[in-house]
């Protein structure tokens, strides 16, 4: 007698007007792995009742977007009793660049020298004069794909950048200033506490992260770096993430951790990376049900 395994139903949160290459890969591989993906597209209007019904059908939900607005969506899904990978609290605190800096400082993780700028120009000038270090990278505490990130060579440039940020961002989200380090960006992708990929991001300008990285090569993780990565994973508790690092001389410095990491840095490994995410979601769902005592 053959027993047909029940299909796992995994919600898939995305925000593009139409299915992108990665979304199609997830659908293709999910089918092979006996997973049904329920698609939640937040670039389109969703009916609240329909949304709630669909969420309740899911075994768990995977968030594939790094956009700031998704936090409220994730909290809504969690309020409906479903597990989200990765959950809203992890997303909120880790994507906050100032909070992440404080975590690194608290747990002695080597990171970039960072200060939180006050919310008025006279105090900003005072703090930067005290710091007296140039150039600096000026960033909003939240931002994706290199948005709200600029380099300042002096105090006047910093003031102009801050004013520009405030003009674009009506909420006046907090801004940080970070030590500028000339370095490629080194990405380590982690799924389920395991390092699954490395990529050196090289660009033509000073920005090598996000959309600005144009060329990607793999690199080896030595014992010293592995120890740092393990510590970051333990502190952040993120299941699926991309850790960006810089090199200052021979020293590794952790720049930031990204939920919803890019899976397409190495084209030949793209499909394999999507498969690893789905495999992790399958195992996580089953393990979570065993621990919590839930049954389908």
Would you identify the regions where 5 or more consecutive residues have pLDDT less than 50?
none
- What's the CATH architecture of the largest domain? 2-Layer Sandwich
Computed CA radius of gyration, to the nearest angstrom: 21 Å
Give the number of domains.
Answer: 3
Pattern of helices and strands: EHEHEHEHHEHEEHEEEEHEEH
Fold and architecture overview:
- The chain has 296 residues and is of the alpha+beta class.
- It has 3 domains: 78 residues, Rossmann fold (3-Layer(aba) Sandwich); 91 residues, 2-Layer Sandwich (D-amino Acid Aminotransferase, Chain A, domain 1), CATH 3.30.470.20; 67 residues, 2-Layer Sandwich (Dna Ligase, domain 1).
- Helix content is 38%, strand content 25%.
- The chain contains 9 helices and 13 strands.
- The strands form 3 sheets. The chain has a 5-stranded antiparallel beta sheet with strand order 11-10-9-12-13. Strands 2-1-3-4 form a 4-stranded parallel beta sheet, sandwiched between helices. It has a 4-stranded antiparallel beta sheet with strand order 5-8-6-7, with helices on both faces.
- A hairpin with an 8-residue loop joins strand 6 and strand 7.
- Helix 1 packs across helix 9 and helix 3 packs antiparallel against helix 4.
- The longest helix has 23 residues.
- 33% of the residues are buried.
- The mean pLDDT is 88.
């Amino acid at each position: 007698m053959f027993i047909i395994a029940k299909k796992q139903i995994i919600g898939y949160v995305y925000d593009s007007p139409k299915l992108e290459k990665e979304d199609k890969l997830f659908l293709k591989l999910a089918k092979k792995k006996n997973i049904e993906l329920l698609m939640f597209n937040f670039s389109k209007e969703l009916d609240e009742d329909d949304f709630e019904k669909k969420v309740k059908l899911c075994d768990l939900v995977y968030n594939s977007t790094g956009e700031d607005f998704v936090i409220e969506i994730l909290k809504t899904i969690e309020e409906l009793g479903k597990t989200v990978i990765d959950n809203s609290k992890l997303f909120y605190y880790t994507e906050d660049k100032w909070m992440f800096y404080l975590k690194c400082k608290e747990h002695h993780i080597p990171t970039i020298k960072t200060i939180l700028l006050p919310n008025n120009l006279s105090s900003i000038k005072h703090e930067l004069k005290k710091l007296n270090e140039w150039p600096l990278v000026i960033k909003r505490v939240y931002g994706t794909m290199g948005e709200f990130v600029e380099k300042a060579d002096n105090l006047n440039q910093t003031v102009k950048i801050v004013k520009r940020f405030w003009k674009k961002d009506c909420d006046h989200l907090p801004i940080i200033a970070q030590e500028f380090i000339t370095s490629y960006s080194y990405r380590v992708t982690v799924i389920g506490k395991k390092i699954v990929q490395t990529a050196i991001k090289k660009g033509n300008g000073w920005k090598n992260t996000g959309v600005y990285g144009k060329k990607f090569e793999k690199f080896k993780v030595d014992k010293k770096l592995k120890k740092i990565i393990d510590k970051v994973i333990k502190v952040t508790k993120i299941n699926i993430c991309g850790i960006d690092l810089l090199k200052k001389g021979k020293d590794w410095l952790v720049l930031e951790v990204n939920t919803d990491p890019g899976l397409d840095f190495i084209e030949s490994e793209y499909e394999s990376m999507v498969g690893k995410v789905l495999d992790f979601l399958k195992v996580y769902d089953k393990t979570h049900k065993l621990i919590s005592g839930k049954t389908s």
